Amino acid sequence: MRRIKYGKYVPEDLGIDATDLMKALSDFFLKSGFDGQYQQPGEFDPDSLEALKQAIEQALRSGDLFEEAQRQEMLEQLDSMPREEMEELLERLIKKLMDEGFLNAEEQQGPGGTGQPTEPRFEVTGKSVDFLGFNTLKDLMGSLGRSSFGAHDTRDMATGVESSGASKPYEFGDTLNIDVAQTLFSALQREGLSLPLNLEYSDVHVHQSEYQSSCATVLMLDCSHSMILYGEDRFTPAKRVALALAHLIRTQYPGDSLRLVLFHDSAEEMKVSELARVQVGPYYTNTRDGLILAQRLLKAEKKDMKQIVMITDGKPSALTLDDGRIYKNAFGLDPLVISRTLEEVNRCKRAGILINTFMLASDYALISFVQKVTEMCKGKAYFTTPYTLGQYLLMDFMNRKRKTIH
Description:
Largest sheet: 6 strands, mixed
CATH architecture of the largest domain: 3-Layer(aba) Sandwich
Distance between the termini: 43 Å
Strand order of the largest sheet: 9-8-7-10-13-14
Number of helices: 12
Order of helices and strands: HHHHHEEHEEHEEEHEEHEEEHEHEH
CATH class of the largest domain: Alpha Beta
Helix content: 25-40%
């Protein structure tokens, strides 16, 4: 994070940069519902400007936004600041975020568009979502060490623009990425040092490059209520990874596609740009509905490789019956739920769709289910935590650049 060094003159907004403030508020913008799970509905609006003010004040008082040499002085200044001045400072910082295009403010009307307007609210913009994804990706890639960006490479060789393999004699249909040196050398070997040099069809050599394929990915994100239970927020890190993966694909793999599916009691597609607002709920885990929707989305994609990346912390516990009713059973491995879910896994296998599962829990029931999924689809299963999820997922995604998916 870029630090600000202060002199005698302190600007009205304390010289805080908007991007630094966005970094400090990233957890707040990617809220999962973890902090408010015990509050009554309507008790606290996490998207209100008042909630945003509280988050900014907390970030200021943490001291992380200030240069180390000036931190104590700035914290003392904040402590001695009258409440009216603090409110003005918070409003100026919110205005800075809006002026920079990170936030939009909106004023909700009462029921039916009449009556007194409700408390002013804010919404994050596409620029904010892109920034959060880039920032997360940068942090994750830094923790992975040196990693090269590019398209998904396979073991198949083809002629292309970027050369990485030995030259080969030209064949009809190859890209004319001519290896001039090898072509002339072939002619010289045959003709000797004489001018003019006669080139024949057999002399023409072209560079080989690794075949670069495109990949369609559906990220299945479990947003059942267990993702914020047991004293741990697992959903916010998963949202971060989704944003980072979307930014990586958009900027480094323009031929790839990423679709996002949330699954809970049922399943739904969600735009990545809307992910920041999503919180957990409802309660159960309908993995089958998620797989059905993911297959439908992948079927529409004309890509060489198709994969499902599933992030979950619980076994399947819900099923949509033929009449539309949702059958639920959270105790153990329900035979009906598991059998119907594995039927969809088998359909993925027949369609050539790889399923990689990232598990945020290690209970026996989940392990047993995921083992069957990986055996059927020849995918991988990763036991991970909210803190290492991003590293595991990005390493898997990047490593697949060097593999052919059969």
